[in-house]
Specification:
35% of the residues lie in helices and 20% in strands. It is α/β, with parallel strands linked by helices and 296 residues long.
Length: 296
Protein backbone atom coordinates (compact mmCIF):
# COMPACT_ATOMS: atom_id res chain seq x y z
CA UNK A 1 0.00 0.00 0.00
CA UNK A 2 1.34 3.41 -0.90
CA UNK A 3 0.47 7.06 -1.23
CA UNK A 4 1.48 9.54 -3.91
CA UNK A 5 1.41 13.24 -3.09
CA UNK A 6 1.43 15.74 -5.96
CA UNK A 7 1.03 18.76 -3.72
CA UNK A 8 -0.62 22.09 -4.24
CA UNK A 9 2.24 23.58 -6.15
CA UNK A 10 2.32 21.26 -8.83
CA UNK A 11 -26.89 -8.53 -17.52
CA UNK A 12 -27.70 -8.88 -21.14
CA UNK A 13 -25.74 -8.10 -24.22
CA UNK A 14 -26.51 -6.64 -27.61
CA UNK A 15 -24.61 -5.28 -30.57
CA UNK A 16 -23.83 -1.56 -30.07
CA UNK A 17 -25.63 0.76 -32.51
CA UNK A 18 -24.61 4.30 -33.27
CA UNK A 19 -27.38 6.84 -32.76
CA UNK A 20 -27.56 10.59 -33.13
CA UNK A 21 -28.99 12.26 -30.03
CA UNK A 22 -29.36 16.06 -30.16
CA UNK A 23 -26.53 16.33 -32.72
CA UNK A 24 -24.13 14.35 -30.57
CA UNK A 25 -23.04 10.89 -31.56
CA UNK A 26 -23.54 8.21 -28.96
CA UNK A 27 -23.74 4.47 -28.98
CA UNK A 28 -26.36 2.49 -27.11
CA UNK A 29 -26.40 -1.01 -25.67
CA UNK A 30 -28.75 -3.09 -23.53
CA UNK A 31 -27.44 -4.28 -20.16
CA UNK A 32 -29.21 -5.22 -16.93
CA UNK A 33 -32.58 -4.36 -18.54
CA UNK A 34 -31.54 -0.76 -19.24
CA UNK A 35 -30.66 0.85 -22.58
CA UNK A 36 -27.37 2.58 -21.81
CA UNK A 37 -25.94 5.39 -23.91
CA UNK A 38 -22.19 5.85 -23.95
CA UNK A 39 -19.30 7.65 -25.60
CA UNK A 40 -16.41 5.49 -26.78
CA UNK A 41 -12.86 6.10 -27.98
CA UNK A 42 -10.00 3.80 -28.94
CA UNK A 43 -9.45 0.07 -28.82
CA UNK A 44 -7.70 -2.29 -26.46
CA UNK A 45 -8.37 -3.26 -22.83
CA UNK A 46 -11.69 -1.86 -21.63
CA UNK A 47 -11.70 1.14 -19.30
CA UNK A 48 -15.20 1.91 -18.04
CA UNK A 49 -15.64 5.56 -17.03
CA UNK A 50 -18.53 6.24 -14.64
CA UNK A 51 -19.79 9.73 -13.75
CA UNK A 52 -21.44 11.04 -10.62
CA UNK A 53 -23.93 13.80 -9.68
CA UNK A 54 -24.61 16.40 -10.92
CA UNK A 55 -22.89 15.17 -14.05
CA UNK A 56 -22.98 13.11 -17.24
CA UNK A 57 -20.59 11.03 -19.32
CA UNK A 58 -19.24 14.29 -20.76
CA UNK A 59 -17.33 14.79 -17.51
CA UNK A 60 -14.69 12.51 -19.06
CA UNK A 61 -14.42 14.38 -22.39
CA UNK A 62 -11.08 15.95 -21.44
CA UNK A 63 -9.36 12.66 -20.58
CA UNK A 64 -11.16 10.04 -22.67
CA UNK A 65 -9.10 10.73 -25.85
CA UNK A 66 -5.85 10.45 -23.88
CA UNK A 67 -6.91 7.08 -22.46
CA UNK A 68 -7.65 5.88 -25.99
CA UNK A 69 -4.31 7.19 -27.28
CA UNK A 70 -2.57 5.17 -24.56
CA UNK A 71 -3.96 1.95 -26.07
CA UNK A 72 -7.23 1.45 -24.22
CA UNK A 73 -10.89 1.26 -25.18
CA UNK A 74 -12.37 4.11 -23.16
CA UNK A 75 -16.14 3.88 -22.63
CA UNK A 76 -17.87 6.71 -20.75
CA UNK A 77 -21.43 5.73 -19.89
CA UNK A 78 -24.50 7.72 -18.96
CA UNK A 79 -25.63 5.91 -15.83
CA UNK A 80 -29.14 4.54 -15.38
CA UNK A 81 -31.81 7.16 -15.81
CA UNK A 82 -29.42 9.89 -16.97
CA UNK A 83 -30.42 10.97 -20.49
CA UNK A 84 -29.92 9.68 -23.10
CA UNK A 85 -29.76 6.41 -21.09
CA UNK A 86 -33.27 5.07 -20.48
CA UNK A 87 -35.25 5.37 -17.27
CA UNK A 88 -35.17 1.92 -15.59
CA UNK A 89 -38.59 0.30 -15.40
CA UNK A 90 -37.84 -1.04 -11.91
CA UNK A 91 -37.04 2.43 -10.54
CA UNK A 92 -34.11 0.92 -8.65
CA UNK A 93 -31.07 3.10 -7.93
CA UNK A 94 -29.47 1.36 -4.95
CA UNK A 95 -25.72 0.78 -4.78
CA UNK A 96 -26.00 -2.93 -5.51
CA UNK A 97 -27.97 -2.30 -8.70
CA UNK A 98 -25.50 0.38 -9.82
CA UNK A 99 -22.68 -2.10 -9.34
CA UNK A 100 -24.54 -4.79 -11.28
CA UNK A 101 -25.03 -2.32 -14.11
CA UNK A 102 -21.27 -2.02 -14.50
CA UNK A 103 -20.74 -5.77 -14.45
CA UNK A 104 -23.52 -6.27 -17.00
CA UNK A 105 -22.05 -3.57 -19.22
CA UNK A 106 -18.66 -5.28 -19.21
CA UNK A 107 -20.35 -8.40 -20.57
CA UNK A 108 -22.52 -6.48 -23.03
CA UNK A 109 -19.43 -4.74 -24.40
CA UNK A 110 -17.92 -8.14 -25.14
CA UNK A 111 -15.36 -8.32 -22.34
CA UNK A 112 -14.85 -10.58 -19.34
CA UNK A 113 -13.30 -7.86 -17.18
CA UNK A 114 -12.44 -4.17 -17.19
CA UNK A 115 -10.68 -1.38 -15.37
CA UNK A 116 -13.35 0.79 -13.72
CA UNK A 117 -12.84 4.51 -13.11
CA UNK A 118 -15.64 6.03 -11.04
CA UNK A 119 -16.29 9.54 -9.76
CA UNK A 120 -18.76 10.39 -7.00
CA UNK A 121 -21.81 8.10 -7.47
CA UNK A 122 -19.74 6.36 -10.13
CA UNK A 123 -17.21 5.56 -7.42
CA UNK A 124 -19.97 4.14 -5.23
CA UNK A 125 -21.07 1.93 -8.13
CA UNK A 126 -17.48 0.88 -8.77
CA UNK A 127 -16.92 -0.12 -5.14
CA UNK A 128 -20.11 -2.20 -5.31
CA UNK A 129 -19.10 -3.89 -8.57
CA UNK A 130 -15.69 -4.83 -7.16
CA UNK A 131 -17.33 -6.25 -4.04
CA UNK A 132 -19.93 -8.26 -5.97
CA UNK A 133 -17.54 -9.83 -8.49
CA UNK A 134 -13.88 -8.90 -7.99
CA UNK A 135 -12.74 -11.23 -10.79
CA UNK A 136 -14.45 -8.94 -13.30
CA UNK A 137 -12.61 -5.80 -12.16
CA UNK A 138 -8.97 -5.64 -13.27
CA UNK A 139 -8.31 -2.48 -11.32
CA UNK A 140 -10.51 -0.14 -9.29
CA UNK A 141 -9.89 3.60 -9.64
CA UNK A 142 -12.09 6.01 -7.72
CA UNK A 143 -12.21 9.81 -7.70
CA UNK A 144 -13.46 12.00 -4.86
CA UNK A 145 -15.10 9.30 -2.72
CA UNK A 146 -13.33 7.17 -0.06
CA UNK A 147 -14.71 3.70 0.44
CA UNK A 148 -18.24 4.17 1.89
CA UNK A 149 -17.68 1.37 4.39
CA UNK A 150 -15.17 3.57 6.20
CA UNK A 151 -17.37 6.68 6.40
CA UNK A 152 -17.21 8.76 9.58
CA UNK A 153 -20.18 11.12 9.82
CA UNK A 154 -18.76 14.09 11.69
CA UNK A 155 -20.84 17.27 12.04
CA UNK A 156 -18.76 18.88 9.28
CA UNK A 157 -19.36 15.98 6.90
CA UNK A 158 -23.09 15.99 7.65
CA UNK A 159 -23.26 19.70 6.85
CA UNK A 160 -21.38 19.29 3.57
CA UNK A 161 -23.68 16.43 2.45
CA UNK A 162 -26.86 18.18 3.51
CA UNK A 163 -28.20 17.79 -0.03
CA UNK A 164 -28.41 14.04 0.66
CA UNK A 165 -31.21 14.86 3.13
CA UNK A 166 -32.68 17.77 1.19
CA UNK A 167 -33.22 15.57 -1.86
CA UNK A 168 -35.53 13.32 0.17
CA UNK A 169 -38.19 16.05 0.29
CA UNK A 170 -41.10 16.04 -2.20
CA UNK A 171 -40.12 19.47 -3.60
CA UNK A 172 -36.55 18.44 -4.44
CA UNK A 173 -37.17 18.48 -8.20
CA UNK A 174 -38.56 22.02 -8.00
CA UNK A 175 -35.53 23.08 -5.95
CA UNK A 176 -33.07 21.79 -8.53
CA UNK A 177 -35.01 23.23 -11.50
CA UNK A 178 -35.38 26.69 -9.95
CA UNK A 179 -33.65 29.59 -11.74
CA UNK A 180 -32.45 27.46 -14.65
CA UNK A 181 -30.96 24.75 -12.43
CA UNK A 182 -28.96 27.19 -10.32
CA UNK A 183 -28.68 24.51 -7.60
CA UNK A 184 -26.50 22.44 -9.95
CA UNK A 185 -23.99 25.29 -10.11
CA UNK A 186 -24.23 25.77 -6.35
CA UNK A 187 -23.33 22.11 -5.71
CA UNK A 188 -20.35 22.24 -8.07
CA UNK A 189 -19.03 25.39 -6.37
CA UNK A 190 -19.63 23.92 -2.91
CA UNK A 191 -17.65 20.79 -3.68
CA UNK A 192 -14.87 22.43 -5.67
CA UNK A 193 -14.52 25.69 -3.72
CA UNK A 194 -11.18 26.70 -5.25
CA UNK A 195 -12.37 26.28 -8.84
CA UNK A 196 -13.25 29.22 -11.06
CA UNK A 197 -15.92 27.19 -12.87
CA UNK A 198 -15.82 27.92 -16.62
CA UNK A 199 -18.87 29.26 -18.37
CA UNK A 200 -20.90 26.40 -19.81
CA UNK A 201 -19.32 23.75 -17.59
CA UNK A 202 -22.70 22.50 -16.36
CA UNK A 203 -24.62 22.88 -19.64
CA UNK A 204 -24.51 19.15 -20.43
CA UNK A 205 -26.02 18.04 -17.14
CA UNK A 206 -28.68 20.76 -17.25
CA UNK A 207 -29.65 19.61 -20.74
CA UNK A 208 -29.93 16.04 -19.47
CA UNK A 209 -32.05 17.11 -16.50
CA UNK A 210 -34.48 18.84 -18.88
CA UNK A 211 -35.29 15.49 -20.49
CA UNK A 212 -38.52 13.88 -19.22
CA UNK A 213 -37.94 11.81 -16.09
CA UNK A 214 -34.18 12.35 -15.93
CA UNK A 215 -34.05 14.66 -12.91
CA UNK A 216 -36.43 12.42 -10.97
CA UNK A 217 -34.13 9.49 -11.79
CA UNK A 218 -31.03 11.41 -10.70
CA UNK A 219 -32.64 12.25 -7.37
CA UNK A 220 -33.62 8.59 -7.10
CA UNK A 221 -29.97 7.78 -6.34
CA UNK A 222 -30.30 9.76 -3.12
CA UNK A 223 -33.78 8.53 -2.33
CA UNK A 224 -32.52 4.96 -2.59
CA UNK A 225 -30.23 5.56 0.37
CA UNK A 226 -31.31 3.54 3.37
CA UNK A 227 -30.21 3.76 6.97
CA UNK A 228 -26.90 2.00 7.49
CA UNK A 229 -24.24 0.88 5.04
CA UNK A 230 -25.32 -1.34 2.12
CA UNK A 231 -24.09 -4.93 2.29
CA UNK A 232 -21.94 -4.44 -0.81
CA UNK A 233 -20.09 -1.62 0.92
CA UNK A 234 -19.31 -3.69 4.00
CA UNK A 235 -17.11 -6.10 2.06
CA UNK A 236 -13.36 -5.67 1.79
CA UNK A 237 -12.09 -4.95 -1.72
CA UNK A 238 -10.07 -7.80 -3.24
CA UNK A 239 -8.88 -5.76 -6.23
CA UNK A 240 -5.82 -3.54 -6.69
CA UNK A 241 -7.20 -0.04 -6.11
CA UNK A 242 -6.27 3.61 -6.47
CA UNK A 243 -8.16 6.52 -4.90
CA UNK A 244 -7.76 10.11 -6.16
CA UNK A 245 -8.09 12.65 -3.35
CA UNK A 246 -8.47 16.37 -4.05
CA UNK A 247 -6.49 18.67 -1.77
CA UNK A 248 -9.23 21.31 -2.02
CA UNK A 249 -12.12 18.88 -1.62
CA UNK A 250 -14.50 18.88 1.32
CA UNK A 251 -13.54 15.24 1.80
CA UNK A 252 -10.30 15.33 3.78
CA UNK A 253 -7.35 13.18 2.76
CA UNK A 254 -7.46 11.57 6.20
CA UNK A 255 -10.72 9.89 5.15
CA UNK A 256 -8.86 8.03 2.40
CA UNK A 257 -6.23 6.90 4.89
CA UNK A 258 -8.98 5.70 7.20
CA UNK A 259 -10.40 3.69 4.30
CA UNK A 260 -7.30 1.49 4.02
CA UNK A 261 -8.96 -1.04 6.28
CA UNK A 262 -11.45 -1.81 3.49
CA UNK A 263 -8.80 -3.02 1.04
CA UNK A 264 -7.12 -6.42 1.13
CA UNK A 265 -4.85 -5.85 -1.86
CA UNK A 266 -2.77 -2.93 -3.06
CA UNK A 267 -4.31 0.44 -2.25
CA UNK A 268 -2.71 3.69 -3.40
CA UNK A 269 -3.82 7.24 -2.73
CA UNK A 270 -3.05 9.95 -5.28
CA UNK A 271 -3.31 13.42 -3.77
CA UNK A 272 -3.65 16.19 -6.31
CA UNK A 273 -4.76 19.79 -6.61
CA UNK A 274 -8.46 20.42 -6.92
CA UNK A 275 -11.74 19.76 -5.22
CA UNK A 276 -14.39 17.11 -5.79
CA UNK A 277 -14.28 17.73 -9.56
CA UNK A 278 -10.49 17.56 -9.69
CA UNK A 279 -10.53 15.76 -13.04
CA UNK A 280 -12.21 18.79 -14.59
CA UNK A 281 -10.34 21.46 -12.63
CA UNK A 282 -6.85 20.17 -13.43
CA UNK A 283 -7.25 17.81 -16.39
CA UNK A 284 -3.56 17.82 -17.31
CA UNK A 285 -2.48 16.65 -13.86
CA UNK A 286 -5.33 14.16 -13.63
CA UNK A 287 -4.64 12.80 -17.11
CA UNK A 288 -0.95 12.29 -16.36
CA UNK A 289 -1.60 10.49 -13.10
CA UNK A 290 -4.50 8.43 -14.46
CA UNK A 291 -2.40 7.22 -17.40
CA UNK A 292 0.41 6.33 -15.02
CA UNK A 293 -2.03 4.30 -12.92
CA UNK A 294 -3.62 2.64 -15.96
CA UNK A 295 -0.32 1.55 -17.44
CA UNK A 296 1.38 0.54 -14.18
Amino acid sequence: MSEIKLGRANGTSATPKAVDVRRRRYQCIEANSVRFAYLASGSGPLVLLVHGFPDTAHTWDLVRPAIAAAGFRAVALFTRGIAPTSIPADGEYGSAMLGRDLLALITALGESSAIIVGHDWGASAAYAAAAIDPARVKKLITVGIPHPGSARLTPRVLWMVRHFFRFQFPDAEALVKRDDFAHVDELVRRWSPAWDVPRGETDAVKAAFREPGCLKAALGYYRALKRGIPREHKKRILVDSVAFAGLDDNVEVAAYEHARKMFSKRYDIVQMRGGHFMHREHPEVFERELLRVLTA
